[in-house]
Amino acid sequence: MSITTTEKQTSFAQTLIQEKIFIPPSAPRASSLPWLPPSWVPYGELARLHKPAGILYIYFPYLFGSLFAACISAEVPSPRQMVLPNVLLLSIAFVIRSIGCTWNDYVDRDLDKHVDRCHVRPLARGAVAPSAALLFMMAQYFVLFAFAGVTAPESLPYLIPVVLTGTFYPYAKRITHYAQLVLGISLSMGTLVGCTVTGVGAIDFSSPFQRTGISLLALMASYVVWTMIYDTIYALQDLESDKKIGNMAMSIKFEENMAQLLYFLSVVMVVLLITTGYFMNASAFFYVFVAVTGLILYAMVSSINLDDSKDCWWWFVKGGLMIGSSLTGMLMVEYLARAFL
């Protein structure tokens, strides 16, 4: 039986797909967001609406800033007074996360085609045109600054550095092994937004012995370190793909000493949390949760199988939520102690 030209082309295309040299565009995956019209699904995926748990990683520093502000206020706000600021902060964090995901996918659209975990993203699979993605992102920016400008105008000076560092992050993976540090700095600035929205003005850093400023800086630095920990674990899923396409990350830089790095960063994070508590004159309740955070970090680093992408994903998700909950509890008990004791 002779083989037709069409059959040869089909066979050649299948070979390219199998070798991940080319990944064909696909139709919108309506099953990922069944409540959206099919034509909207790729944009919902760009904003990661199908992965809502990820919003917590962005919201945590905003929440920490809010709780920190409540703790240091001359008149500690009541729980009822804390609700509205945190609704605003959660909304801001939601939009910022959507913008960040859209921008990251736009910048990485050609590289994602060659990464197993990422080739189904809307831009990589051809479900959204690059120009349409940029327009979508511009609309998100408009929503962010319009919403923040109306509801929390005092936050705008702090949102600008969040946006600038977040914009640089996808490019950092191409020029430095420390892109996780850039991401951590970007996310940690949400702490300042949380402080201002909750009613605390600009923190005075003019004196090196200003206790509130030192405490806040230590808190922000602890979140930078925590981001470096969890995002490095996240990046281990793509270790081999990143090597092939030329991405740079701490997961590559410290591949042979990964456990030692994670232990070191965990110790640094705990020291920074202790520093935060010391300079804000925290109660014993605060340090109980610092100890819990340290135990979770130890359990994570000692238990994780760094060569198993599924285990890395489990600890990224579950470990991240455990640490985030512990840090929330740390500041929450301090706030409640100051409000009611």
UniProtKB/TrEMBL annotation:
Keywords: Glycoprotein, Membrane, Transferase, Transmembrane, Transmembrane helix. This is Diterpenoid pyrone biosynthesis cluster protein C. InterPro entries: Prenyltransferase, UbiA_prenyltransferase, UbiA_sf. Pathway: Secondary metabolite biosynthesis; terpenoid biosynthesis. It is found in: Membrane. GO terms for molecular function: 4-hydroxybenzoate polyprenyltransferase activity. Gene3D superfamilies: UbiA prenyltransferase. Its main location: membrane. One of its GO terms (cellular component) is mitochondrial inner membrane. Belongs to the UbiA prenyltransferase family.
